[in-house]
C-alpha cells in the first residue's frame, strides 16, 4: 500500500512540477496557510527549538520567526517539486553562484586538490546540490541520509543526479574515499544533521545548546588534504537564491582536530542568527542533546 501511495504522490509531483513558477508560488501560499493555520505542522518541535535557541527573545519575536519559517518551508516544498523538471537555464536563473565565489571555485579547481563544500539545511540546499553538478568541472558527489521509503529514495537519487552530481549514502563513506583516490573531485556535505552515534560526534555550543555534529566530513577532508568551503545560501526573493563560498581551509591535513568542524558550526550559526526563518526548525535537531520533544 505504501508503494502505491508513494507512486501516486510522485506522479502528481511530476505533473505539478511542470506548472509555471507563478502558479507554484500560489500553491505555496495555499500550503503555507495549511501548515500554519490548519495542520500546525510540527508546531511543538518548532517552538521548543526556537525557545532553546533564542532564550533572550520575547514570545512575540519567536512567533514572528515561526510564521516566516512556515512561509519559507512552503516555498521550499514548491521549489523542490519544481526541481523535478527544472531546466539547467531556469535553475541557474533561480540560484546563482556569487561572482567572487565563481572565481574562487575556478582557482581551487586548478589546485589539483579535492574541494569539500559544507552547508546546512538553510536557504534551499536541494537547489544548491543540483547547482554543484553544473558549476564545477570536477566530478561531483553529494552525501545524503538514506530514506526508510526505498521507492522515494530512488526517486530522490534520480532527481538529485540530473545535472551530474552523484549522490552517495552517508553509510558508504569508505566507497567515497576509494573514489576520491582516482582524481580530484568536489564533494558536498549537508553537515547539520543529528548523528546517531553521539559518543563519536563532535560536541560544541551551537545556538546556546551543547550540540553533536557529524565529524565524518572533517575526518575525510583531513585524510585527503582537501580544500574546505562553507556555502552560504542567501534568499534574495521568493524562489531566488545566491550561493557564496567562505574558505574554511586550503589544506585540511594541516588543521587541528575539530578545527574545521568548529569553523563550519560558527559560519552556519552566523547565517541562522542573520535570518533564522531560513533554517529547518521543524527537525528534532536536539533530540540527543537533552531536549524532550
Explained architecture:
With 293 residues, the chain is α/β, with parallel strands linked by helices. It has one domain. 48% of the residues lie in helices and 18% in strands. The chain contains 11 helices and 9 strands. The strands form 2 sheets. Strands 1-9-8-2-5-3-4 form a 7-stranded mixed sheet. Helix 8 links the parallel strand 3 and strand 4. The longest helix is centred in the N-terminal third of the chain and has 24 residues. The protein is globular, with a radius of gyration of 19 Å.
In short:
Helices cover 48% and strands 18% of the residues. It is of the alpha/beta class and 293 residues long.
The structure class reads: alpha/beta
Q: Could you tell me the mean pLDDT?
A: 93
Task: Give the spatial strand order of the biggest sheet.
Answer: 1-9-8-2-5-3-4
What fraction, in percent, of the residue positions are helical? 40-55%
Q: How many runs of DSSP E, i.e. beta strands?
A: 9
Amino-to-carboxy terminus distance: 30 Å
Amino acid at each position: 500500500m505504501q508503494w502505491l501511495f508513494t507512486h501516486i504522490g510522485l506522479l502528481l509531483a511530476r505533473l505539478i512540477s511542470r506548472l509555471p513558477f507563478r502558479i507554484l508560488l500560489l500553491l505555496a501560499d495555499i500550503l503555507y496557510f495549511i501548515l500554519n493555520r490548519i495542520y500546525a505542522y510540527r508546531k511543538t518541535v518548532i517552538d521548543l527549538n526556537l525557545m532553546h535557541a533564542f532564550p533572550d527573545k520575547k514570545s512575540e519575536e519567536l512567533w514572528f520567526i515561526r510564521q516566516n519559517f512556515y512561509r519559507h518551508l512552503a516555498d521550499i516544498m514548491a521549489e523542490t517539486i519544481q526541481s523535478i523538471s527544472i531546466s539547467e537555464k531556469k535553475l541557474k536563473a533561480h540560484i546563482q553562484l556569487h561572482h567572487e565565489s565563481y572565481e574562487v571555485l575556478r582557482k581551487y579547481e586548478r589546485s589539483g586538490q579535492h574541494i569539500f563544500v559544507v552547508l546546512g539545511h538553510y536557504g534551499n540546499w536541494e537547489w544548491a546540490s543540483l547547482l554543484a553538478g553544473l558549476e564545477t568541472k570536477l566530478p561531483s558527489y553529494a552525501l545524503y541520509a538514506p530514506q526508510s521509503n526505498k521507492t522515494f529514495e530512488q526517486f530522490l537519487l534520480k532527481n538529485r543526479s540530473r545535472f551530474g552530481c552523484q549522490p552517495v549514502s552517508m553509510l558508504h563513506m569508505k566507497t567515497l574515499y576509494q573514489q576520491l583516490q582516482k582524481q580530484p573531485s568536489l564533494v558536498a556535505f549537508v553537515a547539520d544533521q543529528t548523528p546517531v552515534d553521539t559518543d563519536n560526534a563532535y560536541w560544541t555550543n551551537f545556538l546556546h545548546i551543547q550540540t553533536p555534529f557529524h565529524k565524518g566530513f572533517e575526518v575525510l577532508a583531513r585524510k585527503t588534504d582537501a580544500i574546505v568551503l562553507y556555502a552560504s545560501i542567501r534568499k534574495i526573493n521568493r524562489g531566488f537564491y545566491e550561493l557564496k563560498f567562505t574558505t574554511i581551509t586550503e589544506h585540511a591535513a594541516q588543521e587541528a582536530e575539530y578545527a574545521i568542524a568548529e569553523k563550519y558550526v560558527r559560519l552556519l550559526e552566523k547565517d541562522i542568527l542573520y535570518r533564522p526563518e531560513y533554517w529547518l526548525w521543524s527537525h528534532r535537531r536536539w533530540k540527543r542533546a537533552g531536549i524532550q520533544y
